[in-house]
Amino acid sequence: MGAGSGDPAAVAEAARPANGESVRVDSWIWSVRLVKTRSMGATACRGGHVRVNGERVKPAYAVRVGDEVRLRHAGRERIVIVKRVIRKRVGPPVAAECFVDNSPPPPPREAVAPAGVRDRGAGRPTKRDRREMERLRGLGGPESGTDGP
Prior knowledge:
Layout: H1 8-14, E1 23-24, H2 25-31, H3 38-46, E2 50-52, E3 55-56, E4 62-63, E5 68-73, E6 76-82, H4 92-96, E7 99-101, H5 127-137
Antiparallel strand pairs: 1-4, 2-3, 2-5, 5-6, 6-7
């Protein structure tokens, strides 16, 4: 029985770094599936969206068990505590065992207003339609519709 078909703990153990090896924070957040690609993790670090124990970190920062990692990504903040350090990307059930998720719950789907959906074949919106959509979305623009004082 290989490491890929056993229980999640065995799979995570197989993905551990060798003795004395450390794991980069960009690699770790990719390994535990907080970001889709490692380069997205590195970009988030360079942009100041990743904090470890309250400090902004570079992509090469070595992550350790017990560290608090805060990641702002895709419109929400993820707050995780490192339980297990892994260097290889693993499946979602195994990845969930490598950290404790203290993130606030995501906003409910109803709170996000859907974009204006038009009937198929209705064509391009007119200026009047556009102004109506902007008014519904709460975007700026002249309220009265006149240009003078």
